[in-house]
From TrEMBL, chain A:
One cellular component (GO) term of this entry: immunoglobulin complex
Name of the protein in its database record: IGL c3502_light_IGKV1-5_IGKJ1
Record localization: Cell membrane; Secreted
Keyword Signal included in the entry's annotation: no
Any one Gene Ontology BP term: adaptive immune response
Highest rank taxon of the organism: Eukaryota
Organism: Homo sapiens
A Pfam family matched in the record: V-set
Length: 107, 120
């Protein structure tokens, strides 16, 4: 199985901060990586697919980059609505896997 | 509008069987994968497996292989997740999600979740 490792596990930030979350794959997944946002009690929501493509309707302050084994999700200016947990997911292999999540908290 | 509507919350006893459902609408059900994702209380997302309703090909995470069965009835655009003998550790929220497409966007649409509680 391909393992996905996110860092950090928790991130404390203020409104307006630039935030970066990293996701590493245990082997190359090309660009087959998605990022999701989940708020408490809600289903996850797709933000980024194919490593850097912004899902329709998602604010442009969200961006993704990377290929191979190292990927990042960046929020250029953190907004109150962005405090949530973020997950990466690889869908390159026969079996798909999620990272363990990064909780973005209010500082 | 793409929609995935899941069946309601369930409360079961250990050893009982259960089948939960996920009905797709607003798109060609046989042209996309349907995946199942577990979220235990206070924990992260776990990819359980997926099925392609067009030909019923299914894939399972090793962690869930043999523990659950994923199936689909394309005539009614519905996918299922079932257990033959529940354990307390199966208590969790279960989500279905649509995957695949061209380009493949991962899981681009999600159901609302089905809460399964297993307790004696």
């Amino acid at each position: 199985d391909i393992q996905m490792t996110q860092s950090p596990s928790t991130l404390s930030a203020s409104v307006g901060d630039r935030v970066t979350i990293t996701c590493r794959a245990s082997q190359s997944i090309s660009s087959w990586l998605a990022w999701y946002q989940q708020k408490p009690g809600k289903a996850p929501k797709l933000l980024i697919y194919k490593a850097s493509s912004l899902e329709s309707g998602v604010p442009s302050r969200f961006s993704g980059s990377g290929s191979g084994t190292e990927f990042t999700l960046t929020i250029s200016s953190l907004q109150p609505d962005d405090f949530a947990t973020y997950y990466c997911q690889q869908y390159n292999s026969y079996l798909w896997t999620f990272g363990q999540g990064t909780k973005v908290e209010i500082k | 509008e793409v929609q995935l509507v899941q069946s309601g919350a369930e409360v079961k006893k250990p050893g009982e069987s259960l089948k939960i459902s996920c009905k797709g609408s607003g798109y060609s059900f046989t042209s996309y994968w349907i995946g199942w994702v577990r979220q235990m209380p206070g924990k992260g997302l776990e990819w359980m497996g997926i099925i392609y309703p067009g030909d019923s090909e299914s894939r399972y995470s090793p962690s869930f292989q043999g523990q659950v069965t994923i199936s689909a009835d394309k005539s009614i655009s519905t996918a299922y997740l079932q257990w033959s003998s529940l354990k307390a550790s199966d208590t969790a929220m279960y989500y279905c999600a649509r995957g695949g497409g061209s380009p493949n966007r991962g899981f681009d649409s999600w159901g609302q979740g089905t809460l399964v509680t297993v307790s004696s």
